[in-house]
Recover the amino acids of this structure.
């Protein structure tokens, strides 16, 4: 009985203190729900320009804009809680190219898991673990402090990995950059099949 109580107590402590209802809105509307520091946000998005910004508020705020108003009506943003993780799915058949913009604001210390087929993923001043997968396009992580990470793994099948914070700049086929250190708290993993990865300090810009 003591073991069962201990397990139940551990499970309760491991579960998130926040909770929200399953929410679905269209592009042009806003999702705004509480999200505590150090929680995990998982994003599965159709091709778009995806910007993720760290803020001091314990809130998750998602907005969507598009040049094509009719096409934007086909875009759906669904947020739900799955096994203690905030799951954001962005779906829909949007024919116009390059002008669908998704902005996600999260607490500064949030772990991210991002999966997208094509487009641009731009992460700005977000601490926490990061796992970003993109088939074609560009991943940019800004505000990188090398001392924050115990493990970094960035790779492209065709393209360039630019990590000036670590003094690395590699282009061509099957390029990768890895770094493991005893210090640091977080893990950063980024992969693009065809495109570019930029890991930038606060004052650095993409080449």
């Amino acid at each position: 009985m003591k073991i069962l109580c201990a397990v139940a107590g551990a499970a309760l402590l491991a579960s998130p203190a926040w909770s929200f209802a399953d929410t679905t809105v269209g592009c042009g509307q806003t999702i705004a729900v509480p999200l505590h520091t150090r929680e995990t946000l998982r994003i599965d998005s159709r091709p778009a320009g995806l910007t993720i910004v760290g803020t001091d508020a314990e809130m998750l705020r998602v907005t969507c804009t598009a040049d094509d108003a009719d096409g934007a009506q086909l875009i759906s943003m669904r947020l739900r809680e799955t096994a203690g993780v905030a799951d954001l799915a962005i779906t829909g058949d949007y024919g116009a190219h390059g002008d669908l913009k998704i902005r996600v604001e999260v607490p500064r210390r949030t772990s991210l898991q991002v999966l997208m087929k094509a487009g641009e993923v731009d992460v700005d001043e977000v601490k926490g673990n990061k796992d970003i997968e993109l088939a074609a396009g560009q991943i940019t992580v800004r505000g990188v402090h090398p001392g924050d990470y115990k493990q970094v793994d960035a790779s492209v099948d065709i393209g360039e990995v630019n990590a000036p914070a670590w003094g690395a700049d590699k282009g061509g086929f099957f390029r990768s950059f890895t770094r493991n250190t005893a210090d640091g708290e977080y893990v950063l993993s980024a992969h693009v099949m065809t495109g570019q990865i930029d890991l930038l300090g606060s004052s650095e810009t993409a080449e």
